[in-house]
Write a structure and sequence with these properties.
The protein folds into two domains: 3-92 and 182-213, D-Maltodextrin-Binding Protein, domain 2 (3-Layer(aba) Sandwich), CATH 3.40.190.10; 94-180, 3-Layer(aba) Sandwich (D-Maltodextrin-Binding Protein, domain 2), CATH 3.40.190.10. 31% of the residues are buried. α1 packs across α8. It has 214 residues and is an alpha/beta fold. It has helices spanning 11-22, 56-61, 72-78, 102-105, 122-132, 165-169, 189-194, 196-213, and strands at residues 3-8, 38-40, 46-51, 67-71, 84-88, 94-101, 115-119, 136-140, 156-161, 172-181, 183-187. The protein has a six-stranded mixed sheet. The protein binds adenosine monophosphate.
């Protein structure tokens, strides 16, 4: 029985592929050198499917992929309860943070009762402000969040931060870390039951590969 593993494009693909290769999962073609998005793993019945990070949970949830390597940010935003989160790979670590302009951070008085916050993560942002009892208007953006407060679109942003270099380069400071993020190994719930004999050993060898990589 063949198995599909969804790999999120970007940092997750970049960081996990060398670990998978070291563990003996050799792809028939390297994603950097091929435009193919479904790539067999040599000498196995496994295919790797290269997908947009935000689409990865959909592939796994609907069973097009049995397993996936998905960012915790994407899982939280899409409400990942309809998949099994099996393992924290520790790869693509970063944090989701609330940030604002350096100048605004010097005084709170600039803030209206309802603050405007730009983010890709509308659901996480709504939950976060609701928990804090802070009134907010969430503005959905698809990229370049760091620009939004400078252009007067919002008071604050919620975005992924790794080294903090991007915030600093754009005169922003981190106000609060909302949560820590890393790539998680997830499974389709039906596959995990019906293909258990194939999936359990594969999941074990993936876990071992990531443990050794840390
Ligand atoms: P940095 O300048 O190192 O703090 O990185 C911040 C920039 O990289 C922002 O544009 C983030 O959206 C992006 N970023 C940081 N970590 C990740 C990650 N693990 N996955 C995807 N994007 C990330």
């Amino acid at each position: 029985m063949s198995l599909n593993i969804a790999l999120s494009k970007g940092r997750i693909l970049k960081q996990t592929l060398p670990v998978l290769e070291q563990a003996g999962f050799e792809l028939a073609e390297h994603p950097d050198e091929s435009r193919k998005l479904l790539i067999p793993v040599k000498n196995t019945d496994i295919n790797v499917i290269i997908v947009r990070a935000t689409d990865a949970p959909t592939y796994v949830r609907l069973g097009a992929a049995d397993l996936g390597l998905v960012g915790k940010d994407v899982l939280m935003e899409t409400g990942g309860s309809d998949l099994y989160e099996l393992y924290d790979t520790g790869m693509a670590r970063c944090r989701l943070a609330l940030a604002e302009l350096v100048d605004s951070a010097k005084s709170e008085s600039h803030l209206p009762a309802k603050i405007k916050v730009a983010t890709k993560y509308e659901n996480i942002a709504r939950d976060y402000f609701a928990r804090k009892g802070i009134q907010s208007e969430i503005i959905k953006l698809y990229g370049s969040m760091e620009l939004a407060p400078h252009a007067g679109l919002c008071h604050r942003i919620i975005d992924l931060v790794d080294t903090g270099g991007t915030l600093k380069a754009n005169s922003l400071v981190e106000k609060e870390t909302i949560c820590h993020i890393s790539a998680r190994l997830v499974a389709n719930k039906v596959s995990y039951k019906l293909k258990r004999a194939e999936l359990v050993p594969l999941v074990d060898s993936l876990k071992q590969a990531f443990e050794h990589a840390e």
